[in-house]
Design a protein that fits this description.
This protein folds into two domains: 4-113 and 230-314, 3-Layer(bba) Sandwich (FAD/NAD(P)-binding domain), CATH 3.50.50.60; 121-227, 3-Layer(bba) Sandwich (FAD/NAD(P)-binding domain). The protein is 26% helix and 25% strand. The chain contains eight helices and 17 strands. The chain has helices spanning 14-25, 58-70, 121-124, 133-136, 152-161, 181-189, 236-240, 277-301, and strands at 4-10, 30-34, 75-78, 81-87, 90-95, 99-107, 111-113, 129-130, 145-148, 168-171, 193-195, 199-205, 208-214, 220-221, 224-227, 231-233, 264-266. The strands form four sheets. Strands 1, 2, 3, 4, 5, 6 and 17 form a seven-stranded mixed sheet that branches. The chain has a five-stranded parallel sheet with strand order 8-15-9-10-11, covered by helices on one side. It has a three-stranded antiparallel sheet with strand order 12-13-14. β5 and β6 form a beta hairpin. It is elongated, with a radius of gyration of 22 Å. The structure holds flavin-adenine dinucleotide. Flavin-adenine dinucleotide binds next to α1, β2 and α8. The site of flavin-adenine dinucleotide (FAD) has 38 residues, from α1, β2 and α8.
């Protein structure tokens, strides 16, 4: 088949780029297709990615990753993959602009954190409204923090934040709390203020939170908010091709990041990995190595081991 690639990676975030780096340096014929919407772009000061003591802008990290990957002859295309199907051993990717075929596919499409549906929130994303305490708690020490949520996770966030601030509250935004009796006890024990009124809007100065206003009662003064509303996993391509997905929406993978479909791999936040940049990059590396090994084993089995000097597309 003309145009059959050894590997196609869907996604140009930390997981996809890291896999591409490993596959390019393994001399695999690799195409990376991405739609330009990595979540890493939301963070202008990444402080927990090893090797950048002064922090790094997420967009800068991606730009460096693209340049590094391109150096090892990985082709990178900006396009949106619409459908993914498999016929015998060949994957077919239908994109907005063209169709592509591959022997192996890695899905590294990530997820989207859902912000609360409150006027003003969007302006504050990544500046004073955060999703992840492991990424952002350290940088908000001593600030007035509100957790917007009503479940066990929201209660855990509030309790964990006491290590970072003496001023931690929960706003359930008009919802009845669903946390269990253990969490009820802990919230009481540590005297966490809980406000159940519906939030009207978020008031801020250029994305820096100032007040939450409610349908009833006084506004709440605050500096930062965390939210635990949930995530949308970009798993539709995995679903197209019949890969197993858990009840949360995460693509199910084994330790080599293989899915339930032969030849299909998944890495990064679209799996059950804790959604952090360095973890996504690590998973990409594992997937890249596993795919390379898989192709190696297959060519040994076919007595068709690729050799130096042979055009890559004949491998
Ligand atoms: C506000 C905010 C702040 C954050 N701060 C930090 C932080 O400080 N430290 C940290 O470790 N993490 C942070 N994160 C999380 C971090 O962004 C993710 O862990 C990381 O980006 C995950 O990498 P990934 O490769 O799995 O997914 P992503 O980086 O999201 O990449 C997904 C890729 O898939 C592509 N894609 C999706 N669907 C398709 C399709 N159909 N066709 C083609 N391409 C497709 C996208 O365009 C993108 O290129 C933050 C996230 C947010 C929202």
């Amino acid at each position: 088949m003309t145009g059959l690639r050894e590997v196609i990676i869907i996604g140009g975030g930390l997981a996809g780029l890291s896999a591409a780096l490993y596959l390019g340096r393994s001399r695999r014929d690799t195409l990376l297709i991405h739609s330009g919407r990595s979540m890493a772009k939301w963070e202008v000061n990444v402080q927990n990615y090893l090797g950048f003591p002064d922090g790094i802008d997420g967009t800068d990290l991606l730009t460096r990753g693209h340049a590094q990957v391109a150096r090892f002859h990985v082709e990178i295309i900006e396009d949106e993959v619409r459908t993914l199907t498999k016929d015998d051993d060949t994957f077919h990717l239908q994109c907005q602009q063209a169709d592509y075929y591959a022997k192996r596919v890695l899905i590294a499409t990530g997820l989207t954190h859902l912000p609360p549906d409150i006027p003003g929130v969007k302006d504050c994303l990544g500046k004073s409204l955060f999703f992840c305490k492991d990424c952002d708690a350290y940088r908000v020490q001593g600030k007035r923090i509100v957790i917007i949520g009503r479940n066990n996770e929201a209660a855990d966030y509030a309790l964990a934040m006491l290590l970072f601030s003496p001023s931690v509250m929960i706003a359930t935004n008009g919802q009845v709390p669903t946390w269990d009796s253990d969490h009820t006890g802990w919230l009481k024990e540590y005297q966490i203020t809980i406000r159940q009124d519906r939030i009207c809007m978020v008031e801020h100065d250029e994305g820096h939170l100032r007040d939450l206003t409610f349908e009833q009662g006084d506004p709440m003064k605050l500096d930062v908010a965390f939210t635990t509303r949930g995530d949308v996993y970009h798993n539709d391509l995995a679903e197209d091709v019949g890969a197993s997905i858990d009840t949360e929406g995460e693509i199910i993978v084994d330790a080599s990041l293989k899915t339930s479909v032969a030849g299909l791999y998944a890495a990064g936040c679209v799996t059950a990995a804790n959604c952090q940049m360095i973890i996504a990059a690590g998973q990409g590396a594992i997937a890249g190595q596993a795919i390379n090994r898989d192709l190696f084993d297959e060519s040994l089995g076919r007595h068709a081991l690729p050799r130096l000097g042979q055009p890559v597309h004949q491998m």
